[in-house]
Design goal:
There is one protein chain. This protein is α/β, with parallel strands linked by helices and 312 residues long. It is globular, with a radius of gyration of 19 Å. Bound molecules: NADP nicotinamide-adenine-dinucleotide phosphate. The site of NADP nicotinamide-adenine-dinucleotide phosphate (NAP) has 29 residues, from α1, α3 and α4.
């Protein structure tokens, strides 16, 4: 039976294990795929730990880890049009991603352009789409300055590229080890931690027009002090986060509004295929090292994207 990496209860890494599970059959409006690559995300370990997503049913264990993948269609469910066996696709998974076979919902599945690798394609449904949603939510005019915290991670790297493409000046916080990397994306690097507000003001004396936070907690509390009082459209969000809704609400900001739409998936797929958006896959692990892949993200210090590749 095909192999999958699962958790058998909510908890820490100790609840993870490999399992042999039957290949899932596609239901209505679903595609079955042979997985080629999986994007590893913080939400994977957060769900394992017991976090819930809006509208998600309670977990039925074992639960296959992961929420996004790219692969090759092996079967199409009833009612599916526009996809056929053998198509190369990417999308948000139904029933997990760290597996040799899984399902995609056609509502969130796109054809993989030939110019795009399976590795890069697997990273688009979550990190790149979240970056896209946040940058569009802020809707800053060209020439404005956007501060991104955690700019060296999966969402940050994509958000920086999208913001630069929109004509924004981008300032970003990242560990000193990522300085050269984030500067290569056109980001003005700032070291996080004590004194970060002064360091941001030193590199952006004209002020920061908005913050896209990808860290949360104390880092979000501290960085919010960078924002000067709004002078323009007070209704426009100026402080958004993908990482910490509770803190951002207390600070007067808002959580990023996720579209989770085919339109956004198609948009980021097109940008990636055109070479405008590079997810910067830093580490690739085989499926039998899925535990190490998830630990690499769970440390909270990933560079770009971590991917699990499934051997053909
Ligand atoms: N709401 C949604 O739909 C949604 C979707 C995607 C992601 N998210 C959330 O958004 C957050 C970011 O996701 P991601 O995929 O980009 O995570 P990631 O790939 O793990 O990247 C996080 C980045 O933050 C940096 N970082 C950690 N502590 C920091 C600090 N104090 N100051 C500045 N940078 C710091 C990390 O590296 P260094 O410290 O080494 O710089 C790392 O590069 C996560 O909380 C994730 O769960 C939410």
């Amino acid at each position: 039976m095909p192999k999958a990496y699962v958790y058998i209860a909510n908890g820490g890494p100790e609840v993870e294990t490999f399992a042999d599970l039957p290949a899932p059959e596609p239901g209505p409006d679903q595609l079955a795929i042979a997985v080629r690559a999986v994007g590893v995300n913080p939400v994977d370990w957060k769900l394992r730990g017991g976090s819930t997503r809006p509208g998600q049913p309670a977990p039925v264990f074992p639960v296959v880890l992961g929420v996004e993948a790219a692969g090759v269609v092996t079967a199409v469910g009833p009612g599916v049009t526009g996809f056929a066996v053998g198509d190369e696709v990417l999308g948000g998974t139904v029933g997990g991603a760290y597996a040799e076979y899984t399902l995609l919902s056609v509502a969130l599945a796109a054809h993989k352009p030939a110019a795009l690798s399976f590795r890069a394609a697997a990273c688009l449904p979550v990190a790149a789409a979240t970056a896209y949603d946040g940058v569009h939510q802020l809707a800053l005019p060209p020439g404005a300055t956007l501060l991104i915290t955690g700019v060296g991670g999966g969402v940050g790297v994509a958000a920086a590229q999208l913001a630069r493409r929109a004509g924004l000046t981008v300032v970003g916080t990242a560990n000193a080890g990522k300085k050269d990397f984030v500067e290569s994306l056109g980001v003005t690097w700032v070291e996080p931690g004590a004194g970060v507000v002064e360091r941001v003001r030193a590199v952006a004396p004209q002020g920061v027009d908005a913050i896209y936070d990808l860290v949360g907690g104390a880092a979000l509390e501290e960085i919010a002090g960078v924002l000067v009082p709004a002078t323009g459209d007070a209704a426009a969000p100026r402080l958004i986060t993908a990482a910490d809704s509770a803190t951002v609400t207390r600070l007067g900001g808002v959580a990023v509004q996720r579209a989770r739409s085919l339109a956004v998936l198609d948009a980021v797929t097109g940008l990636a295929a055109a070479g405008v958006l590079d997810p910067h896959v830093s580490d690739v692990y085989p499926l039998d090292r899925a535990d190490a892949a998830l630990r690499a993200v769970e440390t909270g210090h990933a560079r770009g994207k971590v991917v699990i590749e499934v051997a053909v």
